[in-house]
Amino acid sequence: MKLSxxxxxxxxxxxxxGLSDDDVERLREQLSNILENFEILxxxxxxxxxxxxxxxxxxxxxxDDVTAPSLPSDRVLANAPNRxxxxxxxxxxxxx
Amino acid sequence: xxxxxxxxxxxxxLLRRRETSSLELTxxxxxRISSVDSQVCAFVTICEDQALHQAxxxxxxxxxxxxxxxxxxxxxxxxxxxTNGVRTTCSSKMLEDFVPPYDATVVEKLRAAxxxxxxxxxxxxxxxxxxTEHSAFFPTRNxxxxxxxxxxxxxxxxxxxxxxxxxxxxxxxxxGSIRQPAGFCSVVxxxxxxxxxxxxxxxxxxxxxDQIGPLTKDVTDCALVMNAISGHDPRDSTxxxxxxxxxxxxxxPDIKGLRLGVPKEYFVAGMxxxxxxxxEAALAKLGQLGAVxxxxxxxxxxxxxxxxxxxxxxxxxxxxxxxxDGVKYGFSAKEAASMWDAMEKTKQFxxxxxxxxxxxxxxxxxxxxxxxxxxxxxxxxxxxIRREFDRAFEKYDALITPTSPAVPFKxxxxxxxxxxxxxxxxxxxxxxxxxxxxxxxxxxxxxGLPVGLQIIGKPLSEETLLRVAFxxxxxxxxxxxxxxx
Lengths: 96, 485
Known about the structure:
The complex is a heterodimer of chains A (96) and B (485). Chain A has 96 residues and is mostly helical.
């Protein structure tokens, strides 16, 4: 299938990925080409076939609820781009 | 002979006989890195001080006799496995300064075995790629021909081993990322059964396909590293709660009567004639060793594997990579008008083109109106591919294919055509789709460029794969050839 520039921009919006105009055009062309090649899948008869999400069918993996020490917050937060004490600092989510 | 040329098991034997020290091996490796890495660019980070410190500790341990076969042997870890206190970049601007506060389970296990970690290996950004050209830092070069790619995404790990910079390495394989570079660099690379090795601490790309495994100089080393890293891990709920055998027990050069199937779909158009010749010679050799070779094997859904893979892997990646929002860790765009603008710019400038392409592709495949046609359809064909392998393994102990349809390509050759790049994994993708193990071993050369032989087995049949690989290796000398570097 062929994607339009609007569809590419819409997808980018869904994942909050910033794109330049050049990116949009290049992705439109490349993704269209890739998706066209994937149409081959429609030829496969999958009537009555269950989907596979994981190859190894482990279900309900349980363990005892034992407390154990967590990593110290200072170490965990050491990679934070912006912090205040033991909090991550973010911009205002709701704007006026 | 130079110490850096030794295999991991040879180095380990010398250490335990006290004929060398870990400090000496580590210094040799660091010297080797400083003399060749500027040409091949396998390392993103070199941990000189830490490595020398770990070597001294290993020497203490060797003195006390509390050792494993890998104690004191210097290694290289792909840069998508978390290493406590050592930056883990995934070869991405997004994680350029990320220093994990903990070790991945595999790293923890190797440290417990006495690993000396020389550094972190270059890769395609977030393991997305087949050539290591998608590293945000620099491409890695193939030591057999510096104008060619080493394969990917574990290109740095394969090159580190092939160029004798490290005695062994860890890589990760989502669609061929251990085996394809192993084949391109003439080293041994094993993708274990899904769940055999813990993924805890491996930066997620496509969670239902990712698996960690060894890249080594020979099959014996592969078995030793598998012994060290395999096993159930309560921190990875997809790891298999089954006992781990001693893989070195499989190192017997006897494959008499073993049934080997050769699926014809892997030998079709697009394969380089030279690669066909190498495969014919390898099959003849396996036949001489007593294996029963059957060429009348068909896996008819193989041509759909590429589409299945490139729908499922990007879909999972688009979900996994949503976490890089510039808030908790990693690159964070500072100049932005609002929170949403900051997030968009963080991803725009933190991710490279291939990562963006896959996030977009996956988002499209999962989006409303397309989910059934792409993602669900791909999951159904995944079932058919898996069943097809199940049926084949009722008749065969293992399947034999080339690791790659062609020898290493030129740097830059496929960068403008993503689909051509994706096709270079055509022989390795189906095993990740089916969750089954496969190993690539050196099988010869075409005009001086390496060709890998792939041996594929049913779930948890790593022992059979190692047995076939070992028998073949012991009757050939491809693994002893070294690039002129």
